[in-house]
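User:
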Amino acid sequence: MKTSLSQLSVQSLQTPVSRPAVCSPSVAFFFAWKKGVQIAGLRFFGDGSQEGFKKSDCRWHLRPNLRVIKKSFEVLTNQERVFLAALVSFFNADEGGDLLKQSGVRGLSDLGILTFEQCDVIAGLIMNNHAW
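Assistant: Predicted structure:
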């Protein structure tokens, strides 16, 4: 028996993807955030040090350092700017939005410039996002 596209849509709505019970959304968000910080560069988050990164046990310890980010933004590659701006947007939508515009991002399709690893981080943050 063939399954039509409309049947697949109905089936997927009836059987949502379940989240593993061992990992709460806040923990999953933090792990994705920490991976993003590592990819983007420790210098842009928290106190900017390897020690601070290792000791961090919550996202507040790895808040974006907007002063450092804005100072360095223009010397980054476009891919680095887009990824960093996307990360900032989870912390502060206005600041992140401004940085995304500055990077030339007009919509989600512009995130296609990111590597698979960067996209994986953004997807993890979106799937487990809750108010900062």
